Amino acid sequence: MSDEQIPTKPNADMNFPITGATADPDEHTVALSKDVTLNQINNTWVRIFLPRETVDSSSSSCSNKLPLIVYFHGGGFTVLSPATKMNHEFCSELSAQLSCVIISVAYRLAPDHRLPAAYDDAMEALHWIKTTQEEWLQKYADFSSSFMLGDSAGGNIAYHAGLRAACEVHNLLPLNIRGLILFKPFFGGVKRTESELRLANELDLPLSASDSLWKLSLPIGVDRDHEYCNPMAGEGSKLLEQFKLLGWKIMVSGGYTDPLVDRQIELVKMMEDKGVKVESHFDESGHRTKDFIDPAKRNALYAYIKNFLLSTSAVADTSCE
After folding, report:
1. Whether residue 318 has pLDDT greater than 80
2. Which residues are 102's β-sheet partners?
3. Which branch of life, at top level (predicted)?
4. Under a CB-based contact definition with an 8 Å cutoff, are residues 17 and 84 in contact?
5. Pick from 228, 10, 207: which is nearest to 118 by CA?
6. Which pLDDT tens digit goes with each residue over 221-255?
7. Helices marked H in the chain — which ranges?
8. How far is 265 from 307, CA to CA, in rounded Å?
9. Which residue from 40, 42, 61, 69 has the highest number of Cβ atoms inside 10 Å of its Cβ?
């Protein structure tokens, strides 16, 4: 696939603006980007982001590699892609501000591909990373300092892919995951929480829309207490022991005017009860859409993520003397 070709994504971006990848260092962008095929049969692919300052200084004697973030976009499992304008800009800015390499994964979408298809694609991306000879990743990415990041439905994917990855860390080497960043992750359940009832008509994610997304995304014949939707159900919580044993740190961000906030608080408490290292950030914000639109909110999120990476001691000084 050429660096600037946006793959065919039936209905993925619908009426949302899209942005092409830009690998030309002469372009005035804060980060360069390129698209690479992941699985041609499944029409999955990744968009790689690299801070342009890294390329500009690559002729110097600086040999430090950059932390790697594998990103899963939101969209209720049903829409959007790495090419969606707000997702592209988020990854581009995050790459530049944190001086990190980002791999944004285009996973299969429901209802044509119900869960666990997105989780399978996430794992395929991790295995592709460990074996790829892709130039930017080989030259600039520090596989020993890797993280998974997801927002909304992408946060759900990062969590479930994390549970899987924690059970096969040796098979993923040299990729060494140090933690997960779950930004307003999308979870649910049959029994309504207080925040779901109180904010049932919240414009950005009304309860009826949330229910519809789960109907489109979950395996046919299951309800919202399936482990893919409700992390308190099934075997998921038992696998958290691996997070603890590996010393992974998990960041969870949420907003008190988001209908999903009680689910996110429950997740934090469950992980803390299991002895997992958790860093939580809750404020008065709503659903994640506004955070991507508002520059001030985006910058606050970048700061949270940067501090989280620094707290793992995974971010070394990447500046060149």
Report:
1. no
2. 49, 69
3. Eukaryota
4. yes
5. 228
6. 999 999 999 999 876 678 899 999 999 999 999 99
7. 52-56, 85-98, 117-131, 135-140, 153-166, 169-172, 194-198, 207-217, 236-246, 261-273, 288-293, 295-311
8. 21
9. 69
> Which of 63, 79, 66 lies closest to 9, judged by CA?
79
Exposed (0-12), middle (13-18) or buried (19+): which is 27, by Cβ within 10 Å? exposed
Q: Is the pLDDT of residue 83 over 90?
A: yes
Cβ atoms of 215 and 184 closer than 8 Å: no
Q: Are 304 and 294 in contact (CB under 8 A)?
A: no
Q: CB-based contacts of 293: which residues, under 8 Å, 6+ apart? A: 86
d(CA 96, CA 253): 21
Distances (CA, A) of 14 to 79, 81, 84, 127, 289: 7, 10, 10, 29, 16
Quote the longest CA-to-CA distance of the chain. Answer: 59
Under DSSP, the state recorded for 242 is H
- Tokens encoding 177: 């995951």
**What is the 3-class SS of 168-224, one letter each residue?**
CHHHHCCCCEEEEEEECCCCCCCCCCHHHHHCCCCCCCCHHHHHHHHHHHCCCCCCC
> How many Å separate Cα 24 from the centre of its chain?
25
Question: Pick from 222, 213, 278, 219: which is nearest to 248 by CA?
Answer: 278
The residue count for the chain: 321
Q: Which amino acid is at 60?
A: S
Cα dihedral sign for 178, 122, 276, 249? positive
Close Cβ partners of 33 (under 8 Å, ≥ 6 residues apart)? 21, 22, 23, 47, 48, 49, 50, 88, 91, 92
* Gyration radius of the chain's alpha carbons: 18
Look at residue 212 and tell me whether its pLDDT is greater than 70: yes
Share of the chain above pLDDT 90, in %: 77
The percent helix, strand, coil of the chain (3-state, each to 5) is 40, 20, 40
CB 202 within 8 A of CB 287: yes
